[in-house]
Each structure stands twice: as C-alpha cells, then as structure tokens.
Amino acid sequence: MARTDGADMVPVTALGVGDSPRLRGLDLAHVQLLAENTDGLPPLLVQRSTMRVVDGRHRLAAARLNGTRQLPVRWFDGSDTEAFVAAVRLNSGRGLPLAGVERSAAAARILISHAHRSDRWIASVCGVAPRTVAALRRRPTGDEQQLDMRTGRDGRCRPLSAEAGRRIATAIMRQQPEASLRTVARQAGISVGTALDVRRRLADEDGTASPGPARGTGPAPAAEAPAIRPALIKEQLDRLVRDPSLRYSSQGRALLRLASATLAFTEQAETIAGATAGHSRESLHLVAEACAQGWARFGSYVAPDADTTV
C-alpha cells in the first residue's frame, strides 16, 4: 500500500461498511455532492482489524460512484464498541451532522457499552446535553449495571456516592492533620467542598463545636453556628470593603456585594424561613444547600492552607 500525506492508500474494494450512528442510512444527495467535489476530502478512518470504515461512509460511496480505485485512510486500532464511539464523536463534530434522534440513540447505546463513563463524557461524544444522558440513564432497560464509580471527561474515576470518599478523607485527616484540603480531596476522590465538610465534622467530633445533625436530617449550618462570632465577621467584612484589590475590580465589588447580602440574610434567616409557604420549602432547602456548598467550596479555595500548586 502506498502512502500519501501520512495516510495509507487502500483499494476501495478492500473496504467494508462499519457500524454507523446514522439511522437513515446514506444521504444520497450528500454522496452526490461529495462525488462532484473530491478536492480536500480528509482520509477515511478505518478499523484495521476488520477493514470497516469507522468514519467516511459517504466519502466511500462517492468514491465508488466516481469509479475511484484507491482512497487514503488512517487506521483505528480498537474494539467494535470503541469504533462506534469514535464514529459518533467524529460525525457529531464535522461533515453531515447527525439528527437529534440519532444523537440520542447513540447516547443510549453508548450508555450500555460505557456505563462507567460520566454523563458529561457521553454528552460530549454525542453532542447532546448532559441532562439528556441522565434522563436516558434513568430509563429501565432490563440490563442495568450497578456501578460505584464513573469516569469523567478528564479520565479520572470518581465515586457515585461521596460516602466512601468521606471515609477515606477522614482517615487521611486523622493521619495527616496538616494535609491541605486539595491534597485530601485529590487522594480521596472527592471535591474540595466535601473535604472541607469532613474537616468541620471532625472538628465537631473532637469537641470544638457541638455535634451536627446527620446529613439530610436537618439544616447543616446548625453545627457550625457556635463558632461564628458576628462582631468578628463584621470586622473582617469592613476590612475587605477597604481592600483596594477588591474595591477597584468588578469581580471584587461583586464578591463584596454578595458577601454583604449573604450575611445580612443570615441574620434574618429564621424569621424569613418562618414566613415561607409550605409548598416551597423543599425547593428552598435544595437551593440553600447548593448555595452553602458553593460558599464552602469558595472558602476552601481561599483558605490559608489551600494547596494552590495542584
């Protein structure tokens, strides 16, 4: 086989049609368009072990229509399921775009072969929203796999439940109390915000604050309230307001406004909670939890012991 521009030249008769995410088969109008405009077409991607086309079915059909004898190809070395993922990824990003129903069908199929992959990873492959993948994952298929871990787009495995990571983080903090939150989070496979929560709960257990309620049984901030001194917090906020690095930047001013509003709200939290309608409490609880976690993560990022080199 001759080579051209880094690709191998392969006889058209040696190539077969691979598995495709296209539910409607070939688009004959697109094949005709490619047959009339052959200049600059990229090489086909071909699975080496089977000689089946992973990406380039329309280009192959156009070549056969023109009577072309050889085509440039690049090789794909992987399994059939990996070849399908590659086909979906390439067809979602260039050439004739996949229809919405084809992208959703591809996501459902990849969920079966790559159940360990995260919703965001599958969504990035198929060109759909992560919530679409999450909805597909919730559908009963009769072949559900109970997995404890998922692999994200960065290739890292993370637990579906943070409880195992919390236990690991607890052990690390007891053995290495000087370890930074980011170091603990990385070793335990949890977020920095979760690591911060573990550290606070350990402090409660050690007697520096009253033990907090179990997760999900009541408002989490209650255990930390005794440690907050309003006068000290107000003093620190006043100091931040005078900080030029914050006062004279748009992000700094936004942060100061948000912090001031949050502290003002917390002083009236009990009164405001008592005035809320019963039907809205569940939603408010979820939103409040998300806000608290967001502030906790931010706090861990600016903590004096934060490991900024990671």
Automatic annotation (TrEMBL):
Residues 208-226 have a biased composition (Low complexity). Residues 8-92 form the ParB-like N-terminal domain. InterPro entries: ParB/Sulfiredoxin_sf (IPR036086), ParB_N (IPR003115). Residues 139-158, 205-226 are annotated as: Disordered. This is ParB N-terminal domain-containing protein. It comes from Streptomyces glycanivorans.
